[in-house]
Automatic annotation (TrEMBL), chain A:
Keyword Oxidoreductase listed: yes
NADH:ubiquinone oxidoreductase-like 20kDa subunit domain sequence ranges: 14-149
The protein's name: NADH:ubiquinone oxidoreductase
Parts forming coiled coils: none
UniProt keyword list: Oxidoreductase
Gene Ontology molecular function: iron-sulfur cluster binding; oxidoreductase activity
Taxonomy, superkingdom: Bacteria
Amino acid sequence: MSKPRIAFFDFTSCEGCQLNKLNLENDLLSLLELVDIVEFREAMDDTADTYDVAFIEGSISTPTCVKRIYDIRRRAKVLVSLGSCAVLGGVNAMKNLHPADWVQEAVYGEDKYLFPSMPVQPVSAYVKVDYEIRGCPMSTPEFLHVLKSIVLGRKPEIFDHAVCVECKLHENECVLDKGMFCLGPVSRAGCEAVCPENGQYCTGCRGLVSNANIAGAVGMLKRHGFSEQEARKKLQMYSSLNKLINEAECRHA
Amino acid sequence: MNALEEKLNRFVKYRISEEDVRLLIDHLKQKAPVYAPHNSGEASFSYELVEKSTDVVLQYPRTMQPIKKFFLPPKEVLLNFNIKDNTYSKPEVPEETRIFFGIHSYEMASLKRLDYSFTQGHRESNYISRRKYAIFVGISYEPDESHFSKSVGIDVEETEGFDLFLLKNDTGYFLLEITETGKKLLDGYKENLVPDREELKLEPLRFKSKIKYHHNRLPSVFDHVYKSKVWEKYAEICVGCGTCNLLCSTCYCFDIRDEVELDAEHGSRTRYWDGCMLNTFAEVAGGENFRGSLARRTRHRLYRKFRYITAKSEMLHCVGCGRCSHYCPVGISMTDIVNDLIADHEEKQKREKI
């Protein structure tokens, strides 16, 4: 059996997720025993026609992006979106909250007509996505888990529970109790609660858990002394495409 | 003298100072590894292996993870396997003597419940191996705003399950010999101590959190509140983070995951604490979720504590440690939910009479 041919593509993003893969170092050689990397702009020049697995980093924000993603999907057996931009629209998607003209002018000034831009969307808004690896940046253990699962022909296990779960498993003191801001109670885990564990708070970079109680989350943050405006703004940092964040009415606290 | 005082007065006891308690820890350390509460943050406590007896915190409200972490670890490798050879091996679970020091009565009560759960039907061998030679030294505590163990029938001074017990008094502690094991542990420690003959009188402890009904009445309340509006009320505030489950001293649900290494050959099967408040807990193949709403999940959690296992084991499966209330990020209190259910039940009864 020949090794699966995998490829990496970058769209609108900081390319940090791709860089994170090059940081695998210790595992990189074993990884190459398992798969053939046939296209990876950040690391090599080669290109290929078809892929067993295509990993997509970044959001879709220009007409060229749309063309490219359709093309890649046609040539890929399995397509995986990688990182918050690809999965959620991510930080990029905050631009959708402002008038497009104003944003383009702020970024490109007079040359704005040279750079056609569209409202930011996640990859799944355009093509079928088989698996999603969240995070800003994506976590390498989770990336390896998904890759190994695909190679072995099993469904990867992607968590849909709160970061609180991981903090509790690690017996971390609650950062909300310490007076810090935190979105851990409604944000997706899988990161091993790396931020709260190291004295930071959870910014919700993996997006919200499904069926998240957003009104409850706003109420929770108010209870800990944060304003409703701050709560909603921080919830929007990675999840601005979630319309409920502005709409959910907080009747408590 | 009430029944509890009568019971306590039957034990041989010694009057010791806090300094002596630390010497006792040093003494016990020579016999077996000692685990006790330590500071683990600004205002957080956790059970850790004692290196220095002066690090042990004697008076603390509660540790974050309950004592179950030593018997049902948060993360545990169950199997190592090889998918090429189709072979597997089980990591050995050592059966060793461990001394758990400075443990509160509700923790001991929670182990009694876990003992029940893990010996019903298929016996949980890993749990049983870890539990077998465990020795417990209890300690009394000052209830804080979240403790309500008295409301579920567990006194602060309840000695059941302990081998030795430390009861705080004005000058230090009373050290009570509860079992033969406990008595033997004191060999070489108590030589200079004289048993204290003075009659024990307990100060009535004030619990700030209380359940309105006697604990015997609670299972019957749960016969009538399945369709209560109270569930919705709490589901509106709850964010479903699962903290209440994970830190619950009697919750034992776990999830099992397999992970294969990069050689696509070796791998391991690991279990992790799981919780029924989590969105995917009752999700099955095809995406159907039997408890898709937070109201249903909250109801299930409470019924597991006060009705379902209680009917089989004749023990409430809530021990009043107050972890779910204390660590809840939105401030939902267990006693508030139960008291609301009681009020709802009473109102319903009134209406039915008319």
